[in-house]
Amino acid sequence: MALKIGELARRTGLTVRALHHYDAIGLLTPSARSDAGYRLYNDADVARLHQIQALRSFGLPLADVGTYLSRPDLSLQSVVAQQIDMLTREIEQAGALRERLRRLHGVLTQGQEPNLADWLTTLESMSMYDKYFTPEELQQLPLYTNAAIAVPEWKALVASVRALMDRGATPQDPDAQVLARQWMAKSVHDTGANPILFARLNTLHEHNQEVREQSGVTSDILQFIIDASHEGKLAIYRRYLDDDEYAFVRANIGKRAQEWPPLIARVRVAIDEGHAPDSPQGQELARQWFELFRSFAGDNPATQAKIREALTREPGLTDPGWIDAAMLEWVRQAMMALRAA
């Protein structure tokens, strides 16, 4: 039985607008149209929609869903199996939270006086992390395993940034540059220098207002730090570029900056899974990498060469540490394979 778009939206909990968007970007095109021109979705369309929503629930960006759906090894059966695994982890994580609360209850029952407000806040944060990280990943996340120290340090750093902003400082201010470097260094430390965990932590922060409220990392504070970090890099690039090149980089360096962390994480996953640079996965990641590079470097090969030289010579451009020499070499080989294809 074919479903009209309104019925499909009602029965899946999606909006008609979302289904229209999926159709517009070629992600889910209805198999038929009625005589009156209405979109009609059949069983195969609904199965594909299930895969789309499942991949989105795994944290995959919408822009990458189509690529994954085209993989020959991605069957509906495998997607459902992954969903079962995810729900199993959530059940285990809920059990872990129950155990933490049981221990807290035992302490209170014995008449001891912990700092209850701080403890409960930490427990709440930890339970949120449980929804985004596996138990194994949590053990690799210093922000989680060392929360008693890490959380107060972050609050102090956020307070310093807020005080600087309240004084009217700009991202070009030397004090802003210092705080930006501290912020980036602490981000690396508290994610174990793991770009996968960093990207996942960004997703957690983006989708949970409670986390933003607890951390105090508001959108204006985060943007201030991002801008200050860009200013530090622009000061380095200025030594390599002429006036026109520098103006282009300055105008574009921040436009797609938010796309770098998840891309770096995907490259790390590909490397960890043993994909060769000249594999289809490697070439696709190289294409995405070069597209992001072009977004701020432009299309002039001479300018691109200058920027590559700066990236090779200047540690301050590749900090804060999620991109190591091995990753850069893997990407370089993937780029060569892409150009040769």
From TrEMBL:
Its domain of life?
Bacteria
Which UniProt keywords are present, listed alphabetically? Answer: DNA-binding
- Ranges where the HTH merR-type domain occurs: 2-71
Give this protein's Gene Ontology molecular function annotations.
DNA binding; DNA-binding transcription factor activity
The UniProt entry's coiled-coil ranges are none
Under the heading InterPro entries, the entry gives: DNA-bd_dom_put_sf, MerR-type_HTH_dom, MerR_fam
Q: What is this protein called?
A: MerR family transcriptional regulator
Q: Which organism is it from?
A: Pseudoduganella rivuli
Organism phylogeny: Bacteria, Pseudomonadati, Pseudomonadota, Betaproteobacteria, Burkholderiales
